[in-house]
Amino acid sequence: MIDLYYWPTPNGHKITMFLEEAGLDYTIHPVDISAGDQFKPDFLAFSPNNRMPAIIDHAPADGGEPLTVFESGAILLYLAEKTGRFLPGPADPRGRKTVTEWLFWQMGGLGPMAGQNHHFGLYAPEKIPYAITRYVNETNRLYGVLDRRLNGRSFIAGDDYTIADMAAYPWIVPWKRQQQQLDDFPNLRRWFDTIRARPATLSAYEKGEPLANRPTVTEAGKSILFGQTAATQTQK
């Protein structure tokens, strides 16, 4: 059994996509990030960066005490190694290297840049044209990188669906909010439609619908999400 601490954001969806693909038994524990659930002491005890997702694996491979993992990329790697799925094993170091490269590409590039795109385009209290243009253009550049990578390949790492695809896909889902045109990237569009149609993807996103349908981010929620400093967190 895996406890998943989750909210239906792109990073949250990555993990439900894996769990549904692998058929693992899991329980969702909602972490309402607009309400500040991510700052509760019991959550911070195993997710010290006050971000979801995080997991507690009650049946780790070593048979020991429950094992906690935070950071979505680390969780994907952990689950892939636990199950032996969606990541080439040590016998295929080149394939494994490629998957981890593109997983880190998403973690260090596509996610942060698209996240800033969302922030300045949707949530910032004032519209700053330079910031909006900067992150819309960088998101566009990254779409182009992925589109070129997918030329002649079914999935990011080649013929097989891997955690690299699960990491990137949820950050392409909000392409309209990112002020992109998916049809400008035909290889990316084909890949996106293929993953969107997978039964596990459909199931993963259905799991998040009850939470996604809650009210949108309020001004108080924005203060919680975007107003934190080291000092404010030590006071909680």
Describe the structure.
The chain is of the alpha+beta class. The chain has 2 domains: 91 residues, 3-Layer(aba) Sandwich (Glutaredoxin); 105 residues, Glutathione S-transferase Yfyf (Class Pi), Chain A, domain 2, CATH 1.20.1050.10. It contains 10 helices and 4 strands; from the N terminus they run βαβαββαααααααα. The chain has a 4-stranded mixed β-sheet, with helices on one face. Helix 1 packs across helix 8, helix 4 runs parallel beside helix 6 and helix 5 crosses helix 7. The longest helix is centred in the middle third of the chain and has 31 residues. The chain starts with a strand and ends with a helix.
Give a short summary of the structure.
The chain is α+β, with helices and mostly antiparallel strands. The protein contains 10 helices and 4 strands; from the N terminus they run E-H-E-H-E-E-H-H-H-H-H-H-H-H. The protein is 55% helix and 8% strand.
